[in-house]
Amino acid sequence: HRLKSLYSRAQADIQRAGLGDTWEEFRSTLSKIKKDGYLITKGEFNPGVYGVAAPIINESNIVLGSIGVAWDEKERRDVDVKRAVISVKRAAREISSRLAQAEVHI
Fold this sequence. Notes:
Elements: H1 2-16, H2 23-36, E1 39-42, E2 49-57, E3 63-72, H3 81-104
Antiparallel strand pairs: 1-2, 2-3
C-alpha cells in the first residue's frame, strides 16, 4: 500500500505537520481531507505561512495529487481564507473533471 509506505518513510514530517501520530490517525486525517475537499495549514513547515490545498481525484475516487496556495501572513494580511478555500476547491474540481474527460478520450 503506497500510503502506508509513505507514512513509514515520512512519519516524523507527518507528525510534525499535525496529520497524525499513528498510521490510523494519518489515514483518518486523509479521509477527512478527502471528505471536506480541502485542508488549511498554518506554520507546519514554515512559521507564519498559511496554506490551502485541495485533492485532485480521478473517476475511481482515488487522490492523484493536490493543488494549493500558500502565503506569508505578515506579507499578505489581506488574504480572505474562505475565498482561498473556495478558489482552490474550484480549481481542484476543474482539474479532476478535465482529467476525467481526457481519460474518456484516450
